């Protein structure tokens, strides 16, 4: 009788569990071109190659959905874009802050490169001067972005174009901060050369600030290629490089298979999530993990914000191992939702989105499965939770884009669901 009741309960939970819904989808991205003539000329010249435009990062601010399109290959129309959140299924992307800010010189054209290798197989980048000296608002290539509580959009710009083909460094790695109410650039910070190493690859940015003190802001930039975190102090307009053993990848967890494509990555510290402030000073926990790993770590933001302590060996024991997610649970992005006390994270090796309630021990048994789908969630690359409790997940089949070719079908999706609903029936659900 108990077994029957248990089975009935499992069936009830399964049937009533709310999964992610497909909100937006694209076969190919299109943009709000100044005119049809400009678009056709870009196609003719190779400055726009539809199949080379892959969406990667997302952010939500009020009624705008921001989408990044890194310049993995040549022919990317615009790297930083947005569209208005509405019922349109395949929105056209609008360059941000403008068309002009997202344009490279006329010399940037499609290459004859054989796009068959990954990031670590790419050639050494050719330096091409500094476009920022011509227009400080220029956005060359960005992977992930973040809007903060002070209505600012923080953009990590790698300055690197045609990464997988004939790489060209159009500008140094930098942080651009925009006022979202005016769409004007507030500041551009160039990351010092001595903080960017030969293997550096910065593809994420996390902002630590509160609306009550907007000048007291810090940006954390995980360097997945050289295993460090660059910390930017907004008030003092300076940055420093923090190293720790926990920022490295796990050599046993770098073998991945996505969409039938097998590959090996050595990506270190990547995903980061900020917990809830515990006092008026904004002290909070920073959760983080390497991409090629299944373990989760944490450190107090008071450590990262203290340059002297963070850059000394004395800080080693300030970091903690929280636990392991379990087999094949490698993740890219993660995000903490303060309404549910749950961290949501991607699961790229499982075509899935997972979750963990921070009130529980970090064990495989306490990891929840929000959704898994070998069609709509092939390589969930980024996710965010907005202030209304909506979870947004962007999937883009990126390994197929990098190592093979995408099929002429819907390849890019944004899935969504209410955080309180998608954790029902999972270990992430809060106990009454």
What is the residue-mean pLDDT, rounded to a whole number? 93
Radius of gyration: 21 Å
Helical percent range?
A: under 10%
Largest sheet: 4 strands, antiparallel
Q: Provide the spatial order of strands within the biggest beta sheet.
A: 1-29-28-27
> Uncertain segments of ≥5 residues (pLDDT<50)?
1-16
Q: Would you give an account of this structure?
A:
With 432 residues, this protein is mainly β. It is 10% helix and 35% strand.
Brief overview:
Helix content is 10%, strand content 35%.
Key features?
29 strands, 4-stranded antiparallel β-sheet, 432 residues, disordered N terminus
List the helices and strands and how they pair.
Blueprint (H helix, E strand, L loop, with lengths): L1 H15 L4 E6 L9 H10 L12 E4 L2 E5 L11 E5 L9 E2 L30 E2 L14 E6 L4 E6 L2 E2 L6 E2 L4 E6 L4 E7 L15 E5 L2 E11 L4 E6 L4 E6 L11 E4 L2 E4 L4 E6 L10 E6 L4 E6 H4 L2 H4 L9 E5 L9 E4 L4 E6 L4 E6 L9 E6 L7 E6 L4 E6 L2 H6 L8 E7 H4 L10
Parallel strand pairs: 6-10
Antiparallel strand pairs: 1-29, 2-3, 3-4, 4-5, 7-8, 8-11, 9-10, 11-12, 13-14, 14-15, 15-16, 17-18, 19-20, 20-21, 21-22, 23-24, 24-25, 25-26, 27-28, 28-29
């Amino acid at each position: 009788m108990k077994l029957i009741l248990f089975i009935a309960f499992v069936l009830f939970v399964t049937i009533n569990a709310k999964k992610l819904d497909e909100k937006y989808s694209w076969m190919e991205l299109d943009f709000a071109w100044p005119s049809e003539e400009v678009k056709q000329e870009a196609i003719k010249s190779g400055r726009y190659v539809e199949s080379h435009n892959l969406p990667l990062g997302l952010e939500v601010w009020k009624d705008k959905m921001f989408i990044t399109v890194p310049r993995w290959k040549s022919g990317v129309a615009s790297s930083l874009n947005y569209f208005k959140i509405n019922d349109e299924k395949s929105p056209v992307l609008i360059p941000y802050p403008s068309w002009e800010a997202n344009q490279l010189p006329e010399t940037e054209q499609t290459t004859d490169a054989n796009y068959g290798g990954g990031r670590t197989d790419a050639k050494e980048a050719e330096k091409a001067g500094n476009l920022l000296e011509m227009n400080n608002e220029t956005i060359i290539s960005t992977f992930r972005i973040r809007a903060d509580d002070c209505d600012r959009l923080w953009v990590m710009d790698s300055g690197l174009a045609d990464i997988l083909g004939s790489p060209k460094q159009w500008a140094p790695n930098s942080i651009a901060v925009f006022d979202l109410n005016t769409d004007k650039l507030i500041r551009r910070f160039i990351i010092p050369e001595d903080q960017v190493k030969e293997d550096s690859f910065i593809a994420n940015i996390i902002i630590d600030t509160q609306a009550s003190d907007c000048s007291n802001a810090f940006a954390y930039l995980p360097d997945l290629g050289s295993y460090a975190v660059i910390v930017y102090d907004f008030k003092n307009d300076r940055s420093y490089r923090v190293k720790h053993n926990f920022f490295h990848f796990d050599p046993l967890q770098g073998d991945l298979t996505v969409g039938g494509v097998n590959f090996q990555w050595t990506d270190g510290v990547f995903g980061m999530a900020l917990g809830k402030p515990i006092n008026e000073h904004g002290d909070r926990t920073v959760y983080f993990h390497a991409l090629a790993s299944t373990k989760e770590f944490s450190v107090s933001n008071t450590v990262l914000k203290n340059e002297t302590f963070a850059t000394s060996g004395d800080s080693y024991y300030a970091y903690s191992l929280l636990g392991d997610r379990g087999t094949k649970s490698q993740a890219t992005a993660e995000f903490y939702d303060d309404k549910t006390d749950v961290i949501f994270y991607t699961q790229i090796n499982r075509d899935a989105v997972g979750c963990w309630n921070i009130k529980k021990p970090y064990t495989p048994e306490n990891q929840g499965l929000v959704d898994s789908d070998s069609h709509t969630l092939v390589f969930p690359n980024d996710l965010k939770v907005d202030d209304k409790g909506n979870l947004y997940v962007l999937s883009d089949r990126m390994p197929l884009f990098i190592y093979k070719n995408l099929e002429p079908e819907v390849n890019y999706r944004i899935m969504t669901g209410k955080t309180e609903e998608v954790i029902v029936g999972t270990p992430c659900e809060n106990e009454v």
